[in-house]
Amino acid sequence: MPIYAPGETWKPGEFASILAIGDSWFWYPQNNLLEALAGHPRLKDPYRNIQMLGFNGAKVSEYVDRGHSRGRYARAFRHELNPQNLQYYVAVMVSGGGNDAVDYGLALKRDCGGCDLPEECVDADGMDALMKDISGALGLLIHDVLWEFGKQGRGVDIFLHGYDYPVPDGRGFDALMFKLAGPWLAPAIDAAGVPHDATLRNGICRRLIDGLNETLARFARPSDGVHFVDCRNVLRCDAQYRDDWANELHPTRAGFGRIVEERWIPLLAKLAYAD
Question: Would 102 be classed as within a structural domain?
C-alpha cells in the first residue's frame, strides 16, 4: 500500500489511483489519515496506492493560481493534472483549511480578556474573510480538477474532509527525525488574551471547526462527484482526549483509525471504493 511523497518515483508496475492534496492530516509521519485509509481491510486493493501532494503548513490557496498571484505549490499541483499523470487517477482527496485558520489567528478579536462566551471572542469580519479566502481557493482547486478530467472525457470523485474538535492544550508536533513545530491553537488564543478557562477555549475551537466544516460542506455535489466527509464528534474531548489526539491538531494512530472507520469507509463503500 505505497503512499508516494511528492517527487517520489512509483514502483515498477504500480500506479497510484488516488491523488491526495493537502495538509498534515495527510502527511503527519507514520500516523495520518492516508495511512489509516490505505491500511483499512475494507478498502479495495486498487485504491491503496496513493500519490500524496502535501507540504508542511500548506494552505489551500497555495495550490492554485489566482490571477494576481501563484500559489507556491501550484506548479506541483498542475504537474499532477498533466494528462500523462492524470490518466492514472480515479479520485482526488483534499485536506485543507486548518493551516489557513491558524494563519488568520483563528479569526479572534485582538482583545478577548473580558469575554465569557466563545462567540464574544470571534471577530465576525475576520471569520468571514477566512471562510471567503478558503472558499475562493477551494473553488478554483475543484474547478481545475473537474476541468482536466472533463478534457479526458472522464468523471472523478473528489473527497473533501473537515476536522474534529481539537483541544488547545499547547502541545506541538514532536517526532524523531522531524523538526519540532507547533503548537498552533494555544498561541493564537493566548495572543488574543482569552482567559484560561478550558470550557471557553474549547468552545472557541468548536466554533472555528464548525465554520470550516460548514464552508467545506457547501461544495458537496454528489451528483457531480464532489463529496464531503464530516469528521466531527468522532474523537474524544473529555479527560481522556489524549488517547485520540497526539497534539493540538493531529489525532493519534487510533484516532485517525476511528475517523476512517466511522466516516470514510461508509462513504467509500457506497461508492464502490471499499467492500
Answer: yes
pLDDT digits (tens, 9 = 90+) for 130-179: 999 999 999 999 999 999 999 999 999 999 999 999 999 999 876 544 54
Q: Are 156 and 270 in contact (CB under 8 A)?
A: no
Domain count across the chain: 1
β-strands 157-161, 91-95: how paired? parallel
DSSP for 150-162? HHTT---EEEEE-
Which set of grid coordinates corresponds to residue 71? 500559489
Strands (E), the chain: 3-4, 18-22, 50-54, 91-95, 157-161, 173-175, 178-181, 226-229
0.90 surpassed by pTM: yes
- Domain residues for the domain of 237 are 3-108+124-166+217-270
- In a domain, residue 255? The reply is yes
Condensed to tens digits (0 to 9), the pLDDT of residues 190-202 reads 999 999 999 999 9
Per-residue pLDDT tens over the stretch 41-96: 999 999 999 999 987 778 898 999 876 677 888 999 999 999 999 999 999 999 98
CA distances from 269 to 25, 226, 229, 238, 260 (A): 22, 16, 13, 31, 12
Per DSSP, the three-state class of 97 is coil
**Residue 186 near residue 102, CB atoms below 8 Å:** no
> Would 94 be classed as within a structural domain?
yes
What region, left, alpha or beta, does residue 30 occupy, with left being phi > 0 and alpha being psi -120 to 50 degrees? left
